[in-house]
Each structure stands twice: as C-alpha cells, then as structure tokens.
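Long-time lurker, first post. I've been practising inverse folding by hand and with some scripts of my own, and I keep getting stuck on stretches where the structure tokens seem ambiguous. Below is the full token string for one chain I'm working on. Before anyone asks, I'm not after the true native sequence, just a reasonable design that respects the backbone. If someone could post their per-position residues I'd love to compare against what I wrote down in my notebook.
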C-alpha cells in the first residue's frame, strides 16, 4: 500500500506505488494500560477553553474557559506549550483563538447572526492546581491572530499566524514585543475567481510595524480579515468556487502557520492557496529568503525578490496544487509539506544544504486512497529519533479519518490505522517514543475522543474519552530537546 521511495540515478529518491503491509482497523475499547506521566494539553474549539489531561491517571488536572475573561466568542483553536522541568508543578502555554463568523462555518443550528469578534491570543499558566490567563497578547500588541501557534526551538519566542488576515507574527516570550510581523497579499493574472490562483500571479510580502504613537498594531478582532471564515480542512478550493464570502477573497493566500527548523536558523511559513513554503531567516529579522512550491511535477524554487523597503515579491507562473500542514524532522534535515486537493501527497524535501534555495525534493509519498479530492494528508508528527512519521489522513464529515505511519528513513508507509473517528486533528508523540495521541473532534458535534497508538509496534491500542471537541494536541515538554519535537517543528 502507499508509496515506496526508490533510488534513481544520482541518488535522488522518487515515488513509486507500493504494496507493503496492510491496513488495520481501530479497536473500539477504552485504554486500560499505563501510558506514562505525560500531560496532554488540548484546546476545546467551540467549547472556548483548554484541558490539561493527565495521561497517567485519566484525569483532567485543570481546565480553563475564556468566557470568564470577557471573551464573547472564544474559538479555542491551536496551542503550544513551553518546556517545564516538572509540568505537574506548573507550565505555560500560548493558545490562539478565532472568532467572528468562524462560529457559523460548522453548520450547527444557531440563532446567532453576528458573533463576537474574538481573535485572541492568550498566554496561560498552570500553577499546579489551576489555569489562569496571564496575558491577552492580542490586546497588548494589537494583533488578533487565530490559527497555528508554534514555539521557537530556544523557547524564547513564539509565532502565531492567521489565514483569514494573511498575517504572521513572532513574539518575544519575556516581553511580548513583536520581533517580526508580515502581511501577505496576492494579485492573480486571471481576474476571474476560478482562475485567480491556478493561473499564476504575484505574492507580495510586506513587513508591518505597529503605530509609532500607540505602539500597537490595528488588527484586533476581525479587523483585516479577507474572508469571513477560515478555509476548513480540505477547503482551499472553496475560495475559488465562491463558497466562502469575504471582502478581499481574490487577494488571499492563506498564511496560517509557521514551523521552526530545530537547528535554529530557519522558520517556514505555510501558504495554503499557493502550495508554497516561504523560508524566513531568523538571524536576519526573519527576512524571507526562499519560496518552495512542493507539488509533484512543479517548479520547486521561486525567487523571493526585493521590491522596495521591507517588501518582497514572489512571481509564480502557475499554482499546481494548494498545500496545508508542514514540518521538520527532529534533525531538521528533512522538511515535509502536505499537498492537498489537486494533488494529495506528502512532499519530502532534503533540507541539509545551508542555503534553502538549494533544498531539493527527495520524494512524494503517495497512496491509492488519495486518488480524489478527499481524503487528504493533513497534520504531521515525528517520533523522537526521527525514524517514524505520523500523518493524519483527514476526510469530510461524517466519514472517519485515519492515521498513516511512515518509515522516515525510506519514506515508505508502514501501516494505515483506519477509521479513528471524524475530524482527526494533530497528533502528539510521547517523548519516550512509546505512544501517539491523536484527538478527533467530531466536527464539534459528532463523536470525539483521543486515539492511542503504540509508536513502537505501530498498533492501535484504544481510546480515551475526550468530550471537548478538541482541535489540537500537545504533550507538555520538559526540556528544550523535547520542545523540538513538539509544537515547534510541526503543525
């Protein structure tokens, strides 16, 4: 099953159709074994908060609701935890929240027509007994960003991005100072919405600054949104099909996440609608230096050219396929990107060269189930030694999603754990390499839970209760080394 990676002339890896080990079905049973002293942190999406789940006992150590803090539309989206020597005594995390009409995108009956604005970034601390909001970073800085949240490999800063606003920002942990912020915008050659992206065009990247008087940006709440709600998983083509309303749809690129190279120098912004990975140089104020278009058969590198003060442009002749989630292996020597919809495959990029403009495609992992628009390869995680990659295979409601385990030395699929549950979200691997925790949210109203997989034997173990519609999953790291395989390097 899936794809094998074979050596072509000159040592380059290429994808082939594989017929490896078979699939396995999930075991519909409650976990009865000891999983270790791990705290699993999960946001509750429409529940408006987060839970800290003790995997050793099955208890929630603590939980928080952002409604208590005056947030009238807290859509608790993604989170990342800073290292703590003993998470049971306390830890700190960053939780991005959406708001506005993201409340209405799930098809759940509601009398609400004008939701609260939301778009908060909360810095939260657990003190060993309870959680509390330490800071509303969006209020401090004026940047209301609601999607992927990642922590830099030195744990001294963190990034948050937002695909409705096409803005990313990097914040200093100690002071909340904005170290860098960028706005992305698109001008397609084809002015008809259907061809706006696939027909090519130019993306402008502009460094943005706070107001010199207020020292704040003016992007709180729904200010700056191009589309009324975010593109759902597998929803990039909904924009060109006119299924998502918004004031500046034709200028959207979908910049909704940043991943960090564990080696320290690079960060990469994920640009969904363009299937593009923009490499940022952390040693030079996060200046953009490279742009990689990762679909199979595409031109990999597009030039990032200066276009005036604090401005760069990337001209693309065509867009072969959107892409979404991405990440680095624990060594940083491999970068993976999930191509979606027009192509469904996992691009594996050799990132060993010191210059990202010379990174090369190793292979594209493919699978027979990726023959149509959905299901899609989605979130990604690695085990600590980097020998295995865990790829969520997402499908539309009410169909269940799956988990693919890949040998990250050969890039051959090992097994496919089928039918985990509806709307599977990011996995987290325990830092001893024994277990994979994979929540499924049930699209905020169907079945939900946490799937547990044995990361050594590659077998599904069972389920844990997860009533919160959880939309992310992070095992709180204890060290910098553990952070680098946490919500730092992958989304």
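-- Answer (accepted) --
I ran through it position by position. Result:
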């Amino acid at each position: 099953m899936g794809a094998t990676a074979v050596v072509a002339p000159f040592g380059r890896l290429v994808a082939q159709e594989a017929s490896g080990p078979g699939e396995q079905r999930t075991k519909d049973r409650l976990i009865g074994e000891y999983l270790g002293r791990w705290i699993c942190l999960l946001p509750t999406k429409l529940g408006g908060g987060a839970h800290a789940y003790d995997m050793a006992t099955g208890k929630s150590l603590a939980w928080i609701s952002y409604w208590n803090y005056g947030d009238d539309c807290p859509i608790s989206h993604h989170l990342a935890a800073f290292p703590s020597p003993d998470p049971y005594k306390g830890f700190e995390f960053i939780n991005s929240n959406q708001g506005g009409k993201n409340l209405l995108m799930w098809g759940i009956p509601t009398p609400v027509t004008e939701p609260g604005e939301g778009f908060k970034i909360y810095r939260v601390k657990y003190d060993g007994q309870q959680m509390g909001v330490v800071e509303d970073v969006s209020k401090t800085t004026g940047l209301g960003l609601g999607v992927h949240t990642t922590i830099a490999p030195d744990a001294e800063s963190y990034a948050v991005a937002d695909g409705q606003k096409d803005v990313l920002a990097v914040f200093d942990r100690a002071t909340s100072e904005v170290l860098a912020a960028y706005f992305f915008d698109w001008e397609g050659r084809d002015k008809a919405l259907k061809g706006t992206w696939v027909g090519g065009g130019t993306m402008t990247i502009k460094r943005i600054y706070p107001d010199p008087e207020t020292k704040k940006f003016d992007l709180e709440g729904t200010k700056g949104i191009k589309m009324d709600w975010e593109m759902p998983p597998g929803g990039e083509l909904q924009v060109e099909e006119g299924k998502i309303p918004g004031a500046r749809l034709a200028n959207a690129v979908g910049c909704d996440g940043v991943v960090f190279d564990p080696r320290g120098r690079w960060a990469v912004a994920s640009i969904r609608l363009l299937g593009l990975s923009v490499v940022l140089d952390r040693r030079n104020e996060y200046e953009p230096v490279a742009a990689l278009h990762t679909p199979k058969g595409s031109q990999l590198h597009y030039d990032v050219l200066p276009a005036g003060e604090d401005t760069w442009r990337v001209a693309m002749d065509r867009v072969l396929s959107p892409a979404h989630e991405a990440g680095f292996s624990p060594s940083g020597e491999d970068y993976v990107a999930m191509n979606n919809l027009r192509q469904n495959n996992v691009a594996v990029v050799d990132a060993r060269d010191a210059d990202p403009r010379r990174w090369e495609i190793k292979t594209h992992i493919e699978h027979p189930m990726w023959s149509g628009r959905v299901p899609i390869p989605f979130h990604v995680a690695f085990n600590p030694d980097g020998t295995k990659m865990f790829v969520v295979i997402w499908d539309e409601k009410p169909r269940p999603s799956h988990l693919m385990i890949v040998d990250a030395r050969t890039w051959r699929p090992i097994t496919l754990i089928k039918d985990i549950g509806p709307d599977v979200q990011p996995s987290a691997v325990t830092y001893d390499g024994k277990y994979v925790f994979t929540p499924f949210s049930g699209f905020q109203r169907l079945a939900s839970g946490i799937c547990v997989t044995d990361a050594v034997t590659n077998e599904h173990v069972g389920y844990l209760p997860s009533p919160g519609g959880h939309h992310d999953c992070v095992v709180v790291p204890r060290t910098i080394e553990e952070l680098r395989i946490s919500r730092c390097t992958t989304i």
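A couple of notes from the structure itself: Residues 290 and 357 are 6 Å apart (CA to CA). Confidence is low (pLDDT under 50) at residues 1-20. Happy to go over any region you disagree with.
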